[in-house]
Amino acid sequence: MVEPILSEPILSVRGLHTSFAAQEGTVRAVDGVSFNVFEGRTLGVVGESGCGKSVTARSILGIVERPGRVTGGEILLRPGDGGAPVDLLKLSPDAMRKVRGREIGLVFQEPMASFSQYYTIGNQIGEGIRLHLGLDAKAARERAIELLDMVGVPQPSRRVDEYPFQLSGGLRQRVMIAMALSCDPRVLIADEPTTALDVTTQAQILDLLRELQEKKGLAIILITHDMGVIAEMAHDVAVMYLGRAVETGPVRDIFRAPRHPYTRALLRSIPTVLAKPRSRLPTIEGSIPHPFNRPQGCAYHPRCVEIIDDQCRTEEPPEAGPETHRIRCFLHGGHKGAVA
Amino acid sequence: MITFMVRRLLLGLFTVWLISMLAFAIIQLPPGDFVDSYIANLAAGGATVSADEANAMRKLYGMGQPIYVQYGKWIVRVIAGDLGESMEWRRPVAEVIGDRIWLTLLLSFAALLVTWSLALPIGIYSAVRQYSLADYVFTLVGFIGIAVPNFLLALIILYTAFRYLGMSVGGLFSAEYALAPWTWDKVKDLAWHLPLPALILALSGTAQLIRIMRANLLDELRKPYVVTARAKGLSEMRTVLKYPVRAALNPFASNIAYLFPYLVSGSIIISIVLGLPTVGPLLVRALIAQDVYLGGAIVLLLGVLTVIGTFISDLVLMWVDPRLRHQLD
Predict the structure, then answer these.
(1) Which residues of chain A are at the B interface, by a Cβ-Cβ cutoff of 8 Å?
(2) Do the bridges between strand A219-224 and strand A42-46 make them parallel or antiparallel, or are there none, so unpaired?
(3) Mind listing the pLDDT tens digit for each residue in B220-264?
(4) For position B246, which CATH number holds?
């Protein structure tokens, strides 16, 4: 793994809040998430279902669906020409559209449902190219063929005229990546890109992403619930729980010495071939609270095995730890009884 | 694909044949025959017909024979292009129907056009701006449109136009053109009269279609490919029109066939109310009088048109849905 590059991040998310107004009350799907994404590096965002991973991705692109709304924070994107970072949340809708697909590409979980079945893949890839790069239909088609070739789709000049339903799942995901990269974005957000694929195809897609990252210096935000994928792909990790990043840091530190009880529990629950046969896989006690019944204090405390005292139940732990490895847990800072 | 189309065409021909038998049988179903109802009519007017005369009439029309012989004779003539003679009008069926079938088609087509050009944009708007004020207004108006019978609407519009605007809105032609041969002026006169009946005819269909379009599109708008399109940086308008609307339109293509007979049969009451020279009122009269050849010819014609509509519908569906196209190859 590469050592942390002490340069400016391409994308910096600061205290992002996104909430959904429902009749029963407001759900804070993303509740103060902060992380940095660097050129040529992969940030793995990991957590259980419903922890706000996907909403974070959609918030960055400004495509959170109603009744969801980004209510606070900053999303700073460093422009390609090296100017001062731009807050995406302050951009006009028109300016934001020029960022989507152009500066930041998005790869989805379900490659079948994420394509329209009514247009050829060439049409769907070429659309962004024509919009952002101003190429005509013919040139866009040429570029689509090049892109298909780049992501390893065989016979790209024939495939370009095919429809998504004519491709296999793995090929569809390659096409999806080609589409996300069609305008040479600097940041790629991959939202569970391998979840819907079988294991061998998963490995191929991850290899492809890594290869493209090396070639183009892409910054990748990889959203997954799979710690194995994180171990294989990520340079940095943000562990999310109920809309918050509870631990962020370099992947090596987090895997070798996880600090937050939730991270430790997640790592314990990875199946391993070294385990004793027929032994039970450790699981995390309890289940994720319903978003309307967010626990008081540290949101993880009802499931936490390392709970200290009432402070965990009543106060939210502040961010603590060194600059490169932030933890939100009273075990690591902010506890009143602690000797510091 | 060619084999598919040929198969569909043959199937269509077979269907038409079945329809012809059914049409003939249905018209014969009520007790009695044309001569009975003719005699009853005359008797109501005070005249009497002797049994001999009645029998002579039956023989003339070939009514003594078994029904399959009657059908056989009829269908052979129909294939040769002769629809027979209307018993009631005592004129060839082709002449009685005359322009009516084309006027019916024209009116139905105009109504379809109005239906689509109203329902699609309103349906799209209602779905995209779900629960907005305009959506509620369209929903309310739509439900009224579904609930109020067409003929009542026709009467209200007739009355309003006559009472307050001094317009006479019956028929498809002004009095001086109704029986005149076709001229450019007559066409212009028709164009002037067409929109109102077309609109009245279109209204209930429009209301239903708005609901269907809205529901379809609401389904499609939640699908992941819409998010993909947004993530590409497309404008909202382009996103909606290119992807979910395209998908939501699919059921419409397959609906053409079902809409068509509805427009023809649904127009009967309105045609009577508005005095439109379409085949609807003619069919009703033929059925009451048990005018076998006229009624049979009209039912057969409508059947043929429906089969053609289904065939066109298949072609359109193949054209709009690539999945269907590739399944067949």
Answers:
(1) 58, 61, 63, 65, 97-102, 105-106, 108, 110, 113-120, 127-128, 131-132, 163, 165-166, 179
(2) parallel
(3) 998 999 999 999 999 989 999 999 999 888 877 777 766 666 666
(4) 1.10.3720.10
Residue B225 covered by a domain: yes
Assigned token pair, B231: 């993530």
B167 found inside a domain: yes
CA A257 vs. chain centroid, Å, equals 22
B39 found inside a domain: no
Sign of the C-alpha dihedral, residues A60, A66, A68, A70? Answer: positive
pTM: 0.81
B247 CB neighbours in chain A (<8 A) are: 116-118
The rounded distance, in Å, linking the Cα atoms of B281 and B43 is 24
Distance, CA of B272 to CA of B267 (rounded, Å): 8
What does the block give as tokens for B71?
Answer: 């059908």
Q: Where are the beta strands (DSSP E) in A23-121?
A: 25-37, 42-46, 68-77, 86-87, 104-107
How many domains are there within chain B?
1
The domain in which residue B172 lies consists of 101-288
Instruction: Locate B202 and state its tokens.
Output: 């279109």
pLDDT tens figures, B72-109: 888 888 888 888 888 788 888 888 888 888 888 888 88
For residue B206, being part of any structural domain is answered with yes
Query: How open is the CA angle A123-A65-B323, to the nearest 5 degrees?
Result: 35
Rounded to whole angstroms, how far apart are CA atoms A99 and A63?
12
Q: State both tokens at A226.
A: 């799979």
Q: What share of chain A is helix, strand, coil (3-state, %, to 5)?
A: 35, 20, 45
